[in-house]
Amino acid sequence: MRKNLLIMTLVAGCLLTTGCASKKDLVNCQNENKQLTSDYQSTKEQLAASNARVASLEEQLWQAKNDYAKLQNSLDKSLSNANQNNISIEKLVDQINESNQYIRHLVEVKSKSDSLNMVLTNNLTRSLSKEELKEVDVQVLKGVVYISLADNMLYKSGSYEINERASETLSKIAKIIMDYKDYEVLIEGNTDDVPISRENIRNNWDLSCLRASSVVQELQNKYGVDPKRLTAGGRGEYNPVASNATATGKQRNRRTQIIITPKLDQFMELIDQAPED
């Protein structure tokens, strides 16, 4: 009898110990899962910033190669002219030095522009929440900052009216635009290829333009962005980034892009400073 009682006590103790251990393991697993989820999101954000930096560096490399090709072409022409017109070596050297000085100036301006673009992109990415980053794509391509927003986060379905959900995201983008006053802002509407015909909306051209205009007026009237810096444009269904053959492709094509570029007069100043041939 005592032997049986002892065995039962030991079995009960083992069960209790096993139950406690299992509960503790579950808590540990849950904590570990939370940490992994947090690490994954952090890594994702770092990857987005790194991708933007890689795109900028690739553009810098392309520009450097292009500048080198132009310099080589200019040198070849100068040598040809020298042979044909007996231009003095001293004048040829002066022309080359002027060309080199102009190229260095262009590289310096572009480097400053790229740095500002990277700061702008990083500031915007950091200001957006994790949920917003799922529907907002920020890229730097050829010295221009592109902010692409999904249509369902901006507008009411099949409409050009801004929905309440868009306010917080647009307010963050407006703050970035206000901080960088030396940039022009183009709002560009895009649609999929599904025809639309509603009162006062004849087709996708109308819809894309009206949507862009709605964002421009929201930035101006609600967030105080200078309207002189804003331009609204629509490209209808004719600037797709994916195939319209699938629902996912259509969703990607229904977007509004906020394109931030240096002011045109800055480029004109560079042209005015170009040395004569």
Q: Can you offer a commentary on this structure?
A:
With 277 residues, the protein is of the alpha+beta class. It is built from 7 helices and 5 strands; from the N terminus they run αααββαβαβαβα. The chain has helices at 2-85, 89-127, 130-133, 166-179, 204-221, 247-253, 264-272, and strands at 136-141, 144-150, 183-190, 230-234, 255-262. The chain has a 5-stranded mixed sheet. Helix 1 runs antiparallel to helix 2 (89-127). The longest helix is centred in the N-terminal third of the chain and has 84 residues, at 2-85. Residues 273-277 have low confidence and may be disordered.
Distance, first to last CA: 113 Å
Shape assignment: extended
Mean pLDDT: 78
What is the ordering of alpha helices and beta strands? HHHEEHEHEHEH
Strand order of the largest sheet: 1-2-5-3-4
Give the DSSP E fraction (strand runs of 2 or more residues): 5-15%
Largest sheet: 5 strands, mixed
Classify the secondary structure makeup into a structural class.
alpha+beta
Number of strands: 5
Low-pLDDT stretches are: 273-277
